[in-house]
From TrEMBL:
Residues in Transposase IS200-like domain copies: 9-123
GO biological process, one term: DNA transposition
Molecular function via GO: DNA binding; transposase activity
Protein name: REP element-mobilizing transposase RayT
Signal peptide residues on this chain, from the entry's feature table: none
Pfam families referenced in this protein's UniProt entry, alphabetically: Y1_Tnp (PF01797)
Gene3D superfamilies xref list: Transposase IS200-like (3.30.70.1290)
Source species: Keratinibaculum paraultunense
């Protein structure tokens, strides 16, 4: 099936979402999120894009981004490849990290721009991780309200704040009030991107992990080789999954799984 032609934004501004393959976590530690932020800073310093907002969740990322020197698709590919190389090396895995192509939608009005950023910043609230976006450290919200340093000018908040007021104190106050309002508009999110069905094996995998007092998020942190190998064997026995399927879902490399099954 040919790929669809990605719509072109008249303003050059897009809401972009990257998610882990099979919804797997792509950020386990603080260092992982910092590495992704470092990747954004590095790419932005070359003038490839302007970033208006971001939110890094455990298994996906939202970006509010404007094309500059290069096409959005090229920028997102370079960001994805750079972080994937880091992740696969650190967690000893191979293969794709992100779910197929990134998702994007055009942002072409001030109203859509503001509500999209509000939606992005409230992702952790929607996920019941925090009660207020200011309590979540991995979004650009606190940069907008001057509670966090805009390190290396990772985002460009002026466009957004100027819509509220040219007076910065007044603009921030209005921004906070606006961010608290309920958003009824829809944006690209995990719920509407069902490109692949949920794994029919996941319940069995979670049941096996429960016997070891582990959850799917704990897999990449597991250092005990004997326990890891036993888990691999049990998953293979109860699901009859291929090593490639196991690698995609649980994140261990295919070679690691192959070795465990042979021992």
């Amino acid at each position: 099936m040919p790929r669809y032609l990605r719509p072109k934004s008249a303003t050059g501004i897009y809401h972009v979402m990257l998610r882990g393959i099979n919804r797997m976590n792509i950020f386990f530690y603080k260092e992982d999120k910092l590495k992704f932020l470092d990747t954004l800073i590095r790419m932005k310093s070359n003038g490839e894009y302007i970033l208006y907002g971001y939110c890094i969740m455990d298994n996906h990322v939202h970006l509010l981004i404007k094309e500059e020197k290069e096409l959005l698709s090229q920028t997102m590919k370079r960001i994805g490849v750079s972080y994937s190389l880091y992740y696969n090396k650190k967690y000893e895995r191979v293969g794709h990290l992100f779910q197929n192509r990134f998702r994007s939608e055009c942002i072409e009005t001030d109203g859509r721009l503001l509500t999209c950023l509000r939606y992005i910043h409230n992702n952790p609230v929607k996920a019941h991780m925090v009660k207020n976006p200011s309590a979540y450290p991995w979004s650009s919200y606190n940069i907008y309200i001057n509670k966090m340093e805009n390190k290396y000018n990772i985002i460009s908040p002026e466009l957004i704040l100027d819509i509220f007021s040219e007076n910065r104190i007044e603009a921030i106050k209005k921004f906070i009030d606006f961010s608290r309002q309920k958003c009824n508009r829809t944006f690209v999110d995990l719920e509407e991107v069902e490109e692949e069905p949920k794994s029919s094996y996941m319940k069995k995998i979670l049941d096996i992990l429960k016997d070891y007092d582990l959850d799917i998020e704990d897999i990449a942190k597991l250092k005990d080789r004997n326990i890891r190998n036993q888990i691999i064997k049990e998953i293979h026995q109860h699901t009859n999954m291929s090593t490639r399927e196991m690698s995609n879902i649980i994140g261990w490399s295919k070679s690691t799984i192959d070795r465990a099954l042979k021992e």
